[in-house]
Design brief:
Layout lengths: L2 H9 L3 E3 L1 H9 L5 E4 L5 H13 L3 E3 L4 H8 L6 E4 L2 H8 L1
Parallel strand pairs: 2-3
Antiparallel strand pairs: 1-4, 2-4
Helix pairs in contact: 1-4, 2-3
């Protein structure tokens, strides 16, 4: 996963941040991909993976929280949801 592409998706406002916001967007059918930090808590991982399975959404765990945060210019980011199909396909490659 290219961190620059994640930054582009964030700049284009095609992401949602945080567990609650990601779950809310999943329920509304607005997510194409979830990026979960490798160092997220077991509780967060279970919650996100369970919801993603329910709503048939792919979850990637390739970057840690520091790398995710750096990619979008944030702090302590554990979960990112991608709301654009094109960006999600780009990030999966």
């Amino acid at each position: 996963m290219n961190q620059n592409n994640l930054g582009l998706a964030y700049a284009a406002k095609k992401v949602v941040l945080g567990t609650d916001q990601v779950i809310h967007a999943l329920r509304q059918g607005k997510l194409y991909l979830i990026i979960l930090a490798t160092d997220a808590s077991l509780n967060t991982k279970k919650k996100i993976n369970d919801k993603a399975n329910t709503y048939h959404t792919k979850v990637l765990e390739r970057l840690n929280s520091e790398e995710l945060s750096k990619a979008i210019g944030g702090f302590n980011v554990k979960v990112i949801g991608i709301t654009d199909k094109g960006f999600s396909e780009l990030l999966v490659k």
